[in-house]
Amino acid sequence: MAQAPQRNQREGGGGRRDGGRRDGGRRDQREESEFIERLVSINRVAKVVKGGRRFGFAAIVVVGDQSGRVAHGSGKAREVPEAIRKATEAAKRKIIRVPLRDGRTLHHDVEGHYGAGHVVLRAAPPGTGVIAGGPLRAVFECLGVQDVVAKSIGTSNPHNMIKAAFEALESMMSPRAVANRRGLKVADIISRRSVQDSAAGAGSEEAETVEAEA
């Protein structure tokens, strides 16, 4: 009679463990559903082996939640779907968070370098849209940026372009982070930025007036 309660306890424990696995599965599904994926590049690669060449595929994927979190990854496999799956899993393991201004654009202009890659990312006013092409557009779509101007000055290799863009995004700082580093208030940082923006706008208007008069 003493063994019956032990069996019941084991059965109850097994039920709890199963329930934990089901909850974990739902959590993974939610995490997968909140991220979007963009295939940047797919390239066929060959490995020379005894008897000929063995072909495979290399994929570059960018993932993000369109709310400030983004990552990139690469994967190789004999088939295209498997390469994309590996790249997606690699990207989700190294997600970074980028501070956005009003949830639509960057806080400030920034440049990024990686190897021969050199990109320039500039904040833009509302209504500008995403002025970027190729791999950079995929990064901004996954990041959730709505207004930005981007230019690739260096190589057109998608690997170096994306890594240069992420190097630039990782150096992005919000007014709160700058204020904490300088020992100032956030209002002081924002007021200075507003003055600079208005001065830049006035300068551009004067230049347009001079050109019109000429």
Kindly describe this structure:
The protein has helices spanning 3-34, 80-92, 135-143, 158-170, 175-182, 186-213, and strands at 36-49, 52-64, 69-77, 96-97, 110-114, 117-123, 130-131, 148-152. With 214 residues, it is α+β, with helices and mostly antiparallel strands. The protein has a four-stranded antiparallel beta sheet with strand order 1-2-3-4. The chain starts with a helix and ends with a helix.
Task: Give the biggest beta sheet.
Answer: 4 strands, antiparallel
Number of helices, counting only DSSP H or I runs of 4 residues or more: 6
The coarse silhouette is: elongated
Q: Please bin the fraction of helical residues.
A: 40-55%
E-strand count? 8
Strand order of the largest sheet: 1-2-3-4
Helix and strand composition category: alpha+beta
Low-confidence stretches: 7-20, 199-211
Characteristic key phrases:
27% strand, alpha+beta, 214 residues, 8 strands, 4-stranded mixed beta sheet, 4-stranded antiparallel beta sheet
Summed up, what is this model?
This protein has 214 residues and is of the alpha+beta class.
What is the secondary structure topology, with strand pairs?
Blueprint lengths: L2 H32 L1 E14 L2 E13 L4 E9 L2 H13 L3 E2 L12 E5 L2 E7 L6 E2 L3 H9 L4 E5 L5 H13 L4 H8 L3 H28 L1
Parallel strand pairs: 7-8
Antiparallel strand pairs: 1-2, 2-3, 3-4, 5-6, 6-8
